[in-house]
C-alpha cells in the first residue's frame, strides 16, 4: 500500500515535560570532568551553541507509541478473534497462517493453528515463507503482517506512520541530577555515583504523518497517543524512576483524500464511486472497495460519523480535506474511530 495514496494525514502536536526527561546521547561525558556522565541528545541544526541544540528524536517518540500500541493489542487480543480473522483470510488463501494483533520481536516467526501466537514475528515469518514465488507478494506481505506491524512496519514492510524530530521553541530549563546503580544481589552500590542532564521545562512542537490507514488503525494510533498525552507512558531514560513523563497537546489534524471529491451529499472517488457520506469519516477500507484490493482483506465497513462541527472542504487543486483544530476536536476524531477498532477486536 505504498504505491498509491488514498488517504494521508498530518497531526501537529506540542510536547512539554511533566517533570524531568532525558533521552541520552550515544556518547556522553568523555574526558571532560565538567560534563555530566549522561548528556541529553543534541543536534547542530539551527544552533550556534558549541554543544548543539537539545531535541526529542522522532525515533524515541515512535518507539514509545509503538510499544504502547503493542501493549494495548496484547491486552485485548483473544483466541476467538484470531480464529475469526483466520477463517476470513483463508477464504483468500488456504495457506494463511495465524496472525496476532502484535508481534513477539523475539519470536521465531512460526505460527500454528494451536494459537501459538506468542511465537509470531511478522518479519521473520514472511522471510521464512519465501513470498517471492507468491503471485502477489506485496499483498501477501501486508495480509500476513500483524495489525501493529501494518501500521509501524517491520523488516519486510515499510511503516505508514512517520514521526518527525521535535525541536524546542523558546527557552529550555535544564537540571543536573545524581544517581547510583544498586547491585540487586548485595544491595550495595554497583555503579556510581553518576550525574545526568535532564530537561524539566520546555516546549517541543512536532508532527506525525500517516497514510493509507483504516479507521481501526487510526483508532489504535489515537489510543496510544492519548496514553502518552495523559501520562500513562513516558519517553527516554529512567521511566521507572520518575523521569520521562510529558504533557501532549494535539494542535491540529489534517486528513487529505487526494483521489476524492464532494458530490452533492457524498464523498466519492474521482471515478464517481461512492465512498461515504459527506458527514462521515472514511478509512482506507471505504476507499479500496475495488476488486483489485480484495486480497488485502481490508474491512468492508470502514466509515464513521464525523464529530459535530467538522466538515470536508474541496482542495484548491485536487482532492478533499478535513481540517481538525484543537485538542478536543482531535480527540473527537479518535473517539469516532473507536467503533471500527472494536469491530477489529470482535466486540
UniProtKB/TrEMBL annotation:
The keyword Flavoprotein does not apply. Residues 83-114 are annotated as: Disordered. The keyword Kinase does not apply. Residues 48-247 form the CRISPR type III-associated protein domain. GO terms for biological process: defense response to virus. Keywords: Antiviral defense. PANTHER family: CRISPR SYSTEM CMS ENDORIBONUCLEASE CSM3. This is CRISPR type III-associated protein domain-containing protein. It comes from Oscillochloris trichoides DG-6. The lineage of its organism: Bacteria, Bacillati, Chloroflexota, Chloroflexia, Chloroflexales.
Amino acid at each position: 500500500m505504498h504505491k498509491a495514496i488514498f488517504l494521508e494525514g498530518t497531526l501537529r502536536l506540542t510536547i512539554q515535560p511533566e517533570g524531568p526527561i532525558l533521552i541520552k546521547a550515544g556518547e556522553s561525558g568523555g574526558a571532560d570532568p565538567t560534563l555530566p556522565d549522561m548528556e541529553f541528545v543534541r543536534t547542530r541544526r539551527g544552533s550556534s551553541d558549541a554543544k548543539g541544540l537539545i531535541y526529542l528524536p522522532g525515533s524515541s517518540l515512535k518507539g514509545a507509541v509503538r510499544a504502547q500500541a503493542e501493549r494495548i493489542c496484547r491486552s485485548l487480543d483473544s483466541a476467538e478473534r484470531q480464529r475469526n480473522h483466520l477463517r476470513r483470510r483463508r477464504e483468500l488463501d488456504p495457506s494463511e497462517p495465524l496472525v496476532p494483533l502484535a508481534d513477539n520481536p523475539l519470536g521465531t516467526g512460526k505460527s500454528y493453528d494451536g494459537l501459538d501466537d506468542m511465537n509470531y514475528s511478522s518479519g521473520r515469518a514472511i522471510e521464512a515463507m519465501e513470498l517471492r514465488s507468491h503471485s502477489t507478494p506485496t499483498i501477501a506481505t501486508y495480509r500476513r503482517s500483524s495489525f501493529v506491524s501494518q501500521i509501524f512496519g517491520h523488516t519486510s514492510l515499510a511503516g505508514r506512520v512517520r514521526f518527525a524530530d521535535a525541536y524546542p521553541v523558546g527557552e529550555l530549563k535544564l537540571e543536573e541530577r545524581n544517581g547510583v546503580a544498586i547491585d540487586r544481589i548485595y544491595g550495595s552500590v554497583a555503579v556510581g555515583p553518576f550525574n545526568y542532564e535532564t530537561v524539566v521545562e520546555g516546549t517541543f512542537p512536532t508532527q506525525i504523518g500517516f497514510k493509507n490507514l483504516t479507521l481501526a488503525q487510526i483508532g489504535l494510533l489515537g489510543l496510544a497517543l492519548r496514553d502518552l498525552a495523559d501520562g500513562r507512558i513516558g519517553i527516554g531514560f529512567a521511566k521507572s524512576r520518575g523521569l520521562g513523563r510529558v504533557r501532549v497537546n494535539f494542535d491540529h489534524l489534517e486528513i487529505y483524500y487526494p483521489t476524492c471529491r464532494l458530490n452533492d451529499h457524498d464523498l466519492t472517488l474521482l471515478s464517481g464511486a461512492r465512498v461515504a457520506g459527506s458527514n462521515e469519516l472514511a478509512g482506507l477500507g471505504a476507499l479500496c472497495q475495488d476488486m483489485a484490493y480484495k486480497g488485502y482483506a481490508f474491512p468492508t465497513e470502514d466509515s464513521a460519523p464525523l464529530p459535530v462541527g467538522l466538515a470536508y472542504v474541496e482542495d484548491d487543486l485536487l482532492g478533499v480535506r478535513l481540517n481538525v483544530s484543537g485538542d478536543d476536536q482531535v480527540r473527537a476524531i479518535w473517539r469516532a474511530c473507536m467503533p471500527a477498532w472494536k469491530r477489529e477486536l470482535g466486540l
